[in-house]
Amino acid sequence: MQVAYPDKFVDSNADNYIKLSDRIWGYAELGFSEFDSSAAHVEYLEKAGFEIKRGIAGMPTAFVAEAGSGGPVVGILGEFDALSGLSQESGALVCRTSTEIANGNGHGCGHHLLGTSAHLAAVAVKSFLETSGMPGRVRFYGCPAEEGGYGKTFMVRDGLFNDVDAALTWHPGIANQVINLNLLAVKQVYFRFKGVAAHAGVSPHLGRSALDALELMNVGVNFLREHIVPEARLHYAIINAGGTAPNVVQANTEVLYTIRAPRNRVVDEIYERVEAIAKGAAMMTGCTVDTRFDSACSNILLNTPLNELMYKHLQRLGAPDYELSEHSFADAIHQTTHREERELAGRMLTAAWRDPKPLFDAVDRYDPASAITMHGSTDVGDVSWVTPTAQCATACFAFGSSPHSWQWVSQGKSSIAHKGMLLAAKTIAATAIDLFRDPSHIEAARAELVARRDGDEYSSPVPDGVQPVRR
Ligand SMILES: [Zn+2]
Predict the structure, then answer these.
(1) Are 387 and 164 in contact (CB under 8 A)?
(2) Are residues 51 and 146 in the same domain?
């Protein structure tokens, strides 16, 4: 039987959702403060007849919108947070602050497109469930603060994905592809050293330097680097160097550490060693140290059966057609990018596409065996540990332009971005519909999840009692 995928439904509602995406681009709100963006999503979802729970998992801008009845339950994940310091004029070919947006922020990761496309996919699935009379629920997750706040990790910790059979999402990108990246687990922790202040010239013997402790900790961690797995990453930022006076023995210092590794378990092992180094540094200097948890998220567990299903639809739909003016705009943006950015982008593609055109107008081949490790992290990781999860990317931006750059903000309201957003909505909706129509896909995806966990159970990387913090 020929399946009626909701491609036409997406096209016939496109204008309305392009408006929503452009509106959220204009709000450009930071994580946990996406009040207008969250309200705009809720306004549309209410009109579309979804049942909505707001302010979930301790986050005022988080929500869940549900439609349908019975099972299975398919979750679709949407984000809407912007980045600070990335205010940029829309459509400009140079880095130029926007006069439209007063808050200095910009949608440098395309989350205005991400949330809107996922939202539109959920509406299309709702329409399919109604017209087909098939049992099942579609649930749209409004996920705040992907950028560093890791809203989804809190949603997972609070059990909001426990009854979800599969989760689907996407990310705006520079190519049409299934996202086949191993992303790392991460944990951020503050270390605070406390010593004793004294005159650095007259009575240094009475002082205990918290700055010495902090420096010794960093030296120790820098030696540790050679003895951890090569995929791991350690970064630190000195939050408080103890003041600006060299003639005072610094009594209070603070450093923030980010620890990334391929799995939560490995992050925890490295963290224990970093903590031991901090204690050693405190002991060497006669100081004390205490720690404060900041944030964390889990690594991604890729899911081949779900990815294959998504790939089938990306191939079926194909790349959008582009006008000459769109090719020219992409060419012009492409010329503002650096050779190394373009090389890095090329490494994310299969071999056949190492040197694509400025506007990627094909579908990259999906090869489950050629997953590559990218040394970044996302809170989609936590969702992927509790329910099978798949993600695709579509070409919304010129090839070689990088996430978190002025170029991505500039291109965020372009017709290329809109076409990518609609392609993602169709891909996600059609993939969800296949899951409702043939539950064997869900069984295969769940079996894969168990295999990928490799004996590890999910335990939230966020300690009990820690609440989401607005930065
Ligand atoms: Zn992003």
Answers:
(1) yes
(2) yes
Distance from residue 171's CA to the centre of ligand 1 (Å): 7
CA of 278 to the centre of ligand 1 (A): 32
Parent domain of 92: 7-182+299-453
Q: Are residues 333 and 412 in the same domain?
A: yes
Q: What is the pTM of this model?
A: 0.93
Query: What SS3 state is found at 216?
Result: helix
Q: Quick: pLDDT tens for 240-291.
A: 999 999 999 999 999 999 999 999 999 999 999 999 999 999 999 999 999 9
Residue 69 CA, ligand 1 centroid: distance in Å: 31
Compute the distance from residue 18 Cα to the ligand 1 centre, in Å.
19
- Predicted local confidence at residue 2, as pLDDT: 59
Give the count of alpha carbons within 13 A of 49, CB side only.
10
Q: Which of 74, 7, 6 is nearest to 438 (CA)?
A: 74
Q: Is 468 part of a structural domain of the chain? A: no
> Could you tell me the distance, in angstroms and rounded to a whole number, from the CA of residue 443 to the centre of ligand 1?
29
Is the same domain home to 446 and 323?
yes
Residue 469: predicted pLDDT: 76
Mean pLDDT, all residues of the chain: 95
Question: Could you tell me if 235 and 139 lie in one domain?
Answer: no
- CA 404 / ligand 1 centre spacing (Å): 8
Same domain flag for 189 and 258: yes
Here the CATH number for the domain that contains residue 357 is: 3.40.630.10
Do strands 105-106 and 181-183 pair parallel, antiparallel, or not at all (unpaired)?
Answer: unpaired
In a domain, 459, yes or no: no
> 196 and 115 share a domain?
no
C-alpha of residue 179 to centroid of ligand 1, in Å: 13
For the chain, the residue count is 471
Q: What is the separation, in whole angstroms, between the first and last Cα of the chain? A: 52
The alpha carbon of 450 and the centre of ligand 1 are apart by a number of angstroms equal to 27
Which CATH number does the domain housing residue 245 bear?
Answer: 3.30.70.360
User: What's the gap in Å between 1 CA and the centre of ligand 1?
Assistant: 38
- Eight-class DSSP state of 169: E
Cα of 377 from ligand 1 centre, angstroms: 10
Which residues make Cβ contacts (< 8 Å) with residue 424, sequence separation at least 6? 113, 117, 118, 121, 170, 172, 392, 393, 394
For the chain, which residues score pLDDT lower than 70?
A: 1-3, 351-356, 470-471
Q: Are residues 151 and 24 in the same domain?
A: yes
How confident is the model over 15-39, as pLDDT tens digits? 999 999 999 999 999 999 999 999 9
| Alpha carbon of 82 to ligand 1 centroid (Å) | 9
CA of 109 to the centre of ligand 1 (A): 4
